[in-house]
Input
Amino acid sequence: MKDNSSATTLIRPVIPARPTTGLWWGMLGVAAFSFTVPFTRVAVGGLPPLFIGSGRAVVAALLAAVALSLARQPFPRGAQWARLAVVAGGIVVGFPLLTSFALTAAPASHGAVVIALLPAATATMAVLRGRERPSAAFWMVTGAGALAAIAFAFAQSGGFGQLHWTDLLLFGAVIAAAVGYAEGGLLARELGAWQTVSWALVLASPLMVFLTALAIAHQAPSGTPVEWAAFVYLGVVSMFLGFFAWYHGLAIGPMARISQVQLVQPVLTICWAGLLLGENVTWTTVFGGLAVVLCAGLAVRVRLSP
Output
C-alpha cells in the first residue's frame, strides 16, 4: 500500500513509538527529579519558599526562551495554548510552589512518602486523558509497586501520624504534577518534548516573575552558597533539563507504562537525602529499594490491552 493511500496514517507523530527507548529516557528524567525534594529542603533552609517556588521557574523560563529562539521554533496553535496552560499549571506553578512551602516543615523523607503516589496518579490521569486501556495485570502490579513505595517511605519517615498541613500541600502537589505530566506527555507528541516544557515555562513566566518580585519585596533572599547552588539546580535541572528527558519518554510511551518508572524516585530521593542531609540509610533502605525497583520493572513490562 502506498504512503498516499487513505488507509495509511497521514500525520506521523513527532516521536516514533519505541517503548524501550522511552523507558531509558524516563529513567534519566526520574534520576534528575530524584534530587528535587532534597535540594528543595536544602534551599528552604535560608531562602523564602515563595522565592524558591517561583524563582526557579523564572530561571527555567529564561533558558526556555533562549532555546526556543535559537531553534526558531514555531508558535503553538489554537487549542495547544490551552493545553500548555494545563501543563504550566501543574508542573510550573502547582508542584514547585506546593512542595516548597511543604518542605519548610516536612523532612525530605516525609515528602518522599507522598511523592511515591505520583506514578499511580500519573497512570490514572494518562488513562483518563490519553484513552489508554491498561490490563488488569498492569493495575495489579501498579498497585503493588505503589504500596511497596509507600511502605518503604513510611519505614524511613516514621509514618504520617496525624494529617498535617504539609501533607495536604504534598497531596496537592502530586495531583498537580500528575495532570501536568499526562497532558504534557500527550502534547509532546505534537510539539516535541523539550518544546512542550519550554512553551509551558514561557507561558507561565509573567505570573512567576510577579510572584518572585513579590517574594523579594517581602523578604530579600539571603542564603549560603550551598543553598544558592541547590536553587540553581532546581531551576536549571529540575524545572528544565529533567523535563526534556521525562516528556520525551512519555511521548514515546505508552504513557501509563513509562510513568511507572517513577516508582524508583522515592528510593533515590531518600538515598540522596541520606547523603546530603545526613539521614540514616539502613538495611530497610536496601531491601525496600530492591522491592520498589522490582515492582517498577514488572510494571513497565506488562503489556497494555489493545
About this structure: Residues 17 and 252 are 5 Å apart (CA to CA). The two ends are 23 Å apart (CA to CA).
